[in-house]
Amino acid sequence: MSILTAIGKASEIPVYVGASHALHRPPMHAPTDIHGETGLDGTDLLPPPAAAARTSPPAIDAAYAALKGTPPGTAWVVATGAFTNVAALFLKYPDLAGHVKGLSLMGGAIGGGFTPAVLGEVDGVPRVGNWTQFAEFNVLADPEAAATIFSNRELAAKTTLIPLDVTHLVLTTEGVRDLLLYGREEVEKGETPLERTESDRKKGKTKLRTMLVELLMFFAKTYKDVFGITEGPPLHDPLAVAAVLTGVGDQHEIPFCDCDPAGEPGLAQRERYEVSVVTEGTYEDARAGARTGQITVKLLPPGEEGVRIPRSLDIPLFWKVLEECVQRADAAVAAAEAAAGTASN
After folding, report:
1. Total domain count for the chain?
2. Active-site residue among 24, 29, 35, 236?
């Protein structure tokens, strides 16, 4: 709610309290070493929430009502955390799979050179996952939920999966930080204040920009010290949203490539996958080296429907679109502040 408050949308976008633990597992310890105790550590610029999260009706029922209120084949569902709420939604309302246009998930990790992304290593051991050697957090948090989604053939055919193999292609480099802090026009004109001290350079053109970059960079040290990724931290969740933008009307705002880049030029065919999840083992087993939460993918025959897993995307265009979103948020905040000032005078 603090983020929505920061961009002036707290009263327009309802937020509901979701599940407190996995479908069939006890609560899992939150990733506080990555995102901090609040999940949004790293900045003191977040405003107090202007509205509270809702508890009634239950989140699953509210989501169903909202989705069914849209024309068939138009709405996307996006999940950027554990898949528990999404799995519960389609389990309770199976007709929804035929109603939505698609499902976009951020989670899982494939490895094996699926993309050129560096997944990192810990103590000299190459990793696939970010929470254990084999598992990414969102899938490990509720592997049964993930398995439920991927085994639903109707839903799988509408699902886009954005694994670490893709998110680790999109790093928040110094150039990206400048873009988000100061805006595209200033960066293109060479007006970014590179000569300032490091402390001053962290202050963006607006309070909102400074806050967003502080949140983005909070876990940079973890990725550098733990995983050996030094260019900047990867960006995870926004890519699941960006994948949805490729289906807005006829405009492919941010192209994602779902073909094997090593394939013969001109003969590339779209790829679709059968995705399996290791559900055996506890959270403790996973920490001890078990493959609990690991996903494996099997390439399906050409033309067969399955999960879409992109191998690449237009990264410069992605950052351009993201910065344009920040521009619109800046404008909305400025308008709201102006209106509040007029009302008080």
Report:
1. 1
2. 236
